[in-house]
TrEMBL record:
Record carries keyword Transmembrane: no
Signal peptide location: none
Source organism of this protein record: Paenibacillus rhizolycopersici
Name of the protein: Antibiotic biosynthesis monooxygenase
InterPro entries: ABM_dom, Dimeric_a/b-barrel
A GO MF term: monooxygenase activity
């Protein structure tokens, strides 16, 4: 089965980036206990002050979809929504490299 990955670009509402980053870092901590989540990295843009990028790699797309149904994940999404002005996601298929199992 192919791995599943995603680059998600979050544009925070003005002044809300750091609070959004905090919630996304909570999500990263939670992902640490999910074996199917191989990578979850939260990044801030050096050139766009309200932009946060999340890089994810999952063992498969089904594991990613299942994670979005988790009650704790859904609660974090609800907390984050008021802070977000926009979201763009780019699905990717990781094929190898350092850090990819």
């Amino acid at each position: 089965m192919d791995k599943f990955g995603m680059y998600a670009k979050f544009t925070a509402k003005p002044g809300e980036r750091d609070q959004l980053v905090g919630i996304l870092l909570e999500a990263a901590t939670g992902a640490g206990s999910v074996p199917e989540c191989e990578l979850y990295v939260v990044n801030v843009s050096e050139t766009e002050p309200e932009t946060v990028w999340v890089t994810e790699v999952w063992s498969n797309a089904e594991a990613h979809a299942a994670s979005l149904q988790d009650e704790a994940t859904r609660a974090m999404i609800q907390r984050a929504m008021p802070l977000i002005a926009g979201v763009e996601s780019i699905p990717i298929r990781p094929v190898g490299g350092k850090g990819i199992k």
